[in-house]
Automatic annotation (TrEMBL):
Residues 5-120 form the Tetrahydrofolate dehydrogenase/cyclohydrolase catalytic domain. It comes from the Bacteria. Keywords: Amino-acid biosynthesis, Histidine biosynthesis, Hydrolase, Methionine biosynthesis, Multifunctional enzyme, NADP, One-carbon metabolism, Oxidoreductase, Purine biosynthesis. One of its GO terms (cellular component) is cytosol. It comes from Ciceribacter selenitireducens ATCC BAA-1503. This is Bifunctional protein FolD. Its EC number is 1.5.1.5, 3.5.4.9. One of its GO terms (molecular function) is methylenetetrahydrofolate dehydrogenase (NADP+) activity.
């Protein structure tokens, strides 16, 4: 029987623990964790994600600040805002929603966030700490951290002897996911658009993580029987059955055909997606504990 991994339930458990940790910090220090979320432009999906982040931060008992900037915002204005948030003692976490409009240099903006406030885990200092195994002082990118919690539900903390394939090599997901799997002792391969035979690599994987951004690309004959399949894709495709112009959300994995072959599989929606926001809250509470000189909770 295939296990369908419930990301909403896992996210709810993380949020419960974050809320308790935030309340304990406020009791001890009189300070609540503070999260600032910055969005530039008009992308409707990004606005929806940012609203969820701000709402969830409030629900967790944080000070929650949202900065909504116009599409034509200059690099200087955005960097000045990040500098202001870096200097704000009430703000523990700064997140700039991606993607930014094309005229802006995302990397320069992300690298200007103080590493200790980089709750997206994208600063080179945090990426470097992850790569060198420093889990104690760094911050890990939210989606891979969340995906790893789902993997742990199935396999526990030690992945010794298991082959893992991560399809995708982005800084936001593929690279940190591979590092987390490696740190848990898996034998890790990173596949991407230039890999010679992705289906063959996938068939060798006990843990198959798909983050390619191509709707339902992973087919049933890519999946090793009994494998754990983690789908990180978020693709909107036309859904004429729902009415003209309507869309539905699908992952990078063809769920209906892969589920019967897999041992465990995360759905889209309701799998990794909800974990992204939960882990952002976890990173913010971790940053707040550290800023107050207290040992940070683990998630
Ligand atoms: N600065 C960042 N930008 C972006 C990140 C990020 O981690 N940091 N990730 C994505 C978008 N994202 C959060 O920002 C995100 C994506 C998806 C979900 C989610 O809960 N998805 C639901 C479905 C939601 C829907 O119906 O559209 C699910 O999969 O169940 C949360 C957050 C890019 N930008």
């Amino acid at each position: 029987m295939t296990t369908v991994i419930d990301g909403k339930q896992a996210a709810a458990s993380v949020i419960e623990a974050v809320t308790a940790a935030a309340a304990a910090l406020e009791r001890d220090t009189g300070r609540r964790p503070g999260l600032a979320v910055v969005i530039v432009g008009n992308d409707p999906a990004s606005h929806a994600y940012v609203s969820s982040k701000s709402r969830m931060a409030k629900q967790c008992g944080f000070k929650s600040v949202q900065h909504t900037l116009a599409e034509e915002t200059s690099q200087e204005t955005l960097m000045a805002l990040v500098a202001e948030l870096n200097a704000d003692a009430e703000i523990d976490g700064v997140l700039v929603q991606l993607p930014l409009p094309r005229h802006l240099d995302s990397d320069a903006v992300i690298q200007s966030i103080l590493p200790e406030k980089d709750v997206d885990g994208l600063h080179v200092v945090n990426a470097g700490k992850l790569a060198t195994g420093d889990a104690e002082t760094g911050l890990v990118s939210c989606t891979p951290a969340g995906a790893m919690i789902l993997v742990r539900q199935i396999h526990g903390r030690d992945l010794s002897g298991l082959n893992a394939l991560v399809i995708g090599r982005s800084n936001l997901f593929g690279k940190p996911m591979a590092q987390l799997l490696l740190a848990a002792n898996a034998t890790v391969t990173i596949g991407h658009s230039k890999s010679r035979d992705l289906p063959a690599l996938a068939r060798n994987a006990d843990i198959l993580v798909a983050a390619v951004g191509r709707a339902e690309m992973v087919k049933a004959d890519w999946v090793k029987p009994g494998a754990t399949v983690i789908d990180v894709g978020i693709n909107r495709v036309p859904a004429p059955d729902k009415g003209e112009g309507k869309t539905r959300l699908v992952g990078d994995v063809a769920f209906a055909e892969c589920a019967p072959v897999a041992g465990a599989i995360s759905p889209v929606p309701g799998g990794v997606g909800p974990m992204t926001i939960a882990m952002l809250m976890a990173n913010t509470v971790i940053a707040a504990y550290r800023a107050n000189g207290k040992p940070a909770p683990k998630f």
